[in-house]
Fold these 4 entries.
Entry 1:
Amino acid sequence: MKYECLPCPVCSSIFGEKDDIVVCPKCGTPHHRSCWANIGRCANDDKHSQGFVWVNPLKDLPKTIDEEKSENTSLKAEIEHEIKEIKEGIPFDNEELMKMGGFRIIGGDELIGDIKVSQYGAYVDKNKHKYIPKFYRIGKTNRKFAWNWAGFFFSIPWLFYRKMNALGAVLAAFLMIVPIVFAKDFVDYSQEILALAEQSSQEMTISDMAQVAPRPPLAYTVTRQMGFAVSLFCGMFGNYFYMRKATRDIKKINQDEKSDAEYELALKQKGSVSIWSMLIAIILMYGIIDAVFTTTVKTGFDLSVYVEKIIQFFQK
């Protein structure tokens, strides 16, 4: 224990680094050796019967840089160990705690609705530390909005990657309906652009080409706007629909009795991710569009004409 900067209880002089100091064996009070010899006892001898124990009044003062580094390293190790000990525990960026430079742990046994965090964690699998806090907010606030950048940038591929196949198929059909129905407009526009590109390579400058470039058909503009709308929808509500599917699947799995290993396997089979589903969905989407456009180029078939006739028929 360090006694520098403390006063001797006998002479009131401040202890120096080289002072000869003795400590009372009963209460721990420090004295100059000479002061102890002069009075022949502890300065707090009259308090010993009351169970007095000397306490360093400087113990709560700021620590040195080396002491702070040592304690911070130890604290960091304790926190890391505690995180590992908490089953499927997830760091939760609580705003109030973040202001103080910290966070709290969402424990595996905590409930989101009537589902344990550990169950959601096993279901989500990949990047669960990003999804569980979003699930937690949705469950506690009942708000459907929780932003997801992967959903915004990758939308339909992300839905199939996370095995939300039904929602992915609906949104994919929504996106493809205009290009399929108005394939003739897309093909004609593409051919005009290609013809202009060939002409520009021979005798037109880029500025000249920009002035005479054909205006995109309405179907093209609408398709782009629909694509942005789908991206925005997945970014804003993707986490909510993912949590809803996870909840439904987990409850269904909970109905059957399984061993721990079987239960974990069932959660990952229903949840986790599927690169194959994503790739198959992408191939099918572009395959269908390509087949429709190829047929339109070869035959000149215009589905929009027949759609217009059907609409006119029902309007009569």
Note: Residues 21 and 32 are 5 Å apart (CA to CA).
Entry 2:
Amino acid sequence: MTVRRRAGPDRRILVSWRAFNASDRMTSFKTIRARAEKRKGGPKALDRLMPDTPDLKRLAKLGDDRILAEMTRRVFCAGFAWSVIDAKWDGFEDAFLRFQPAKLGFQPEDYWEALLRDARIVRNGAKIMSVRDNAAFVQEIAKEHGSFGKFLAKWPPSNEIGLLDLLTRRGSRLGGNTGQMLLRFVGWDGFVTSKDVVACLRDAGLDIAEEVKSKRDLAKVQAQFNAWAEETGLPYTYLSRICALSVGENRSEH
């Protein structure tokens, strides 16, 4: 496997898979889908469990404030009970000025220090300050591409690992599963390396760890989803969901 970097502001990671031949070594997605259908009560029952079809036009129109809001939600949900964040979300919206990046960028230090005592939100200092950093990140991308939503809409799902790398490098606390869940919740078409998805990939013959964290394993996962997308013509979100529903206890992808 080789990883090449293309010149340009995004430095997108391009994956070429030479030693790995998916068609020779991996279970076909037709087999995985048939197993998921059997487990869920048939093709129609499985179809009802699919997420919304990714809509690039809708994503391109998504406001930068909503992108920053979702970044914040995913950051605060990481390692914390999602139900608590959901219950307090109206308070988050008020405390963080409806997540308007430019407005947040002009706030003085006193504003950020006051948030550490604000009962409307979860008072985690590092996560609070990530909002300020990510507001700047969103503005930078918007300046380069027109808006963050337009930027995401143009990024191909065949290079999700390149996008995750960018979120990690230029964003704050957006690495790993947090970045994957951000992309899923804003409507970008991609896979999620949940426990069940990884179990499906390993069962199908992919040589990866039980927890996908290394760049090498992520490249293998990307290559396999690319192969399945070519095989089926399905969105990556569908491939990921079907994969998760075909094994294990069928936990949600997050």
Note: The chain is about 60% helix and 5% strand.
Entry 3:
Amino acid sequence: MNIHIRQLFSGVLCIALGISVGCSTRTGSGVRYDRGLEKAQTSVPKRGSNDKPPLIVQGHVVPWSRIMPGLSEAAGATVMREIVLSMMLDEELAQQGLVLKAGAVETERGYLVESMRRSFENQGVDAGELIERIRLQRGLGPVRFGRLLESNAKLRLLVQDQIIVKEQTINEAYQIRHGPRYECLLITTQSRQQAVDALKRISDMGNTQVAFSAIAQAMSTDPSAANSGRIGIISPADTSITQAIRSILSTLQAGQISPVIAMDDRFALIFVVRQIPPTGVPMADVEDQIRQSLTHRLERLAMEQLADRLVAQARVTVFDRSLDWSWNSSNQP
């Protein structure tokens, strides 16, 4: 199972650590290299002489001076993004006179668990275990995970008063979740003739789901070709789906193949694996839940936009060459 957590941290980010000679200063997308910063570097406090060594190998002490360049290259850009975003959020909250309430971070943790639970509720996945697995995969230990939750809580506080969920959007979401739905396979082609050829090949093979899947793998230009054309369960009420496809769904029965469908820049065929009737759940029973889910989704979009804006505004100086290499490498296409 491939799990993806969308990162909030983008834009131009880095942080001054004052470890080695030279630096780069960034504001927005501009870059400037400065020299003669010895005074600034000497002002950075050094580790105490009584500190325990970070690592001992075969009885030999490995000092931080040997570890830090490698750590900086391997993960410097990621940590810089997180720290700078956190600092910019503190400034923004102060400017707006806002204070994070006690328990806000734990509330954010609850949102994450609930989001995971809903996303995988039909797959027998424990949300808490899944989060722990992702944390291990992404190196989100106690410090970084805590900072991530805190940043999310601050972002949510800053955007929550801007969020308005329209009744039309709630009705659409209700229809998507509880109205008629269709499990489908999809084939797309660049030309009508290619779609006609695909339809003929499927017909020659018996117009079966197996035939459609085989031709989808062989001919479809849609990413779902890698999964035998499976696009999952879709709803005619879902406006994120092309209107031409939504319009034809209600005319098809399970096991049927659509005629060639003309879309904006390509052509398509749909195979209906099964029809799923409406759930019969009254709107009144789920309206609050749908409204909350939509609110969180809109908050997430606004949080990402705010994070992009804040980090793009950050004025940050990098003294360390390894950190600078990490940041520049992370921005390569």
Note: The beta strands are 23-27, 30-34, 55-57, 60-62, 181-189, 230-234, 261-262, 267-276, 315-318.
Entry 4:
Amino acid sequence: MFKRILAAIDLSDINKVIVDWAFSLAQAFDASLDMVYVQPELETPILEITDLLAKSMADLRRELAEEEMERIRELAEQRGLKNVQTVILQGTEEDQICQYAQQHGDDLILIGFCGEGGCRDLGTIAYRILVRSQIPVLVLPALPRREIQKILVPIDLSPLSERALGVAIQWADRFGAELHVLHIIELHESLAKHETIERIKSQVIDLMNRWVTSRQAISFTPHVERRFSAVPGILDFIQETQPDLVVMASHGRSGVSKWFIGSVSERVLRATDRPVLVVKA
């Protein structure tokens, strides 16, 4: 379970969402918190005036970060949270965040993004942390936090997706949430008869039952859907069921996407407005 959580602090509006999630998860898991802001290093100036302007902006950013950390400490005290550390680092954000998490034994990273064109495009900071991190990463959209009452975990029957299912079971148990387990059968209409599809569905549901019951006595709802492709199938299911949290493995059976790039998880993240917990290999 998660005992030490790192929240990557932002100075944009999404920071309120990150802090709210961090405090709520710390209370739910009885975990300590590392609230970390990384100030970018100054780029090499071309002109002296550029150097002065860059240093002035860096000083302002540092001042704003210190004010935000003070606000976070006050909020933590109001919420009765004791084990909250606020840290300001300098360097490349993904490097500093991942190194800090490894050095201090964090087992979960919280990072926000606003989507394409927003304050944190998934293709930049959050994306690079997802690629580099060796621990689970919870990616948060710029939307108010909802209570976790329904959890969806898509699985492709790979060992890593079984691990993601185990994490989803822990969260469902901790929050008393409904657990929905989804498997997409990627078969074209002409490639399989109805009897074959039903046989595959039955085998998958039997496997889901064995995986879940081998870990914990928890109720869940299995779903086996037939789609031409996994990503549209998962996105359609998310739209239909509106889960409060999606738990996914960082890559699946092929192994080709083991660095997250081009994986089903990445493509779902780019298209959904749900919080997504990415479980790493």
Note: The two ends are 16 Å apart (CA to CA).
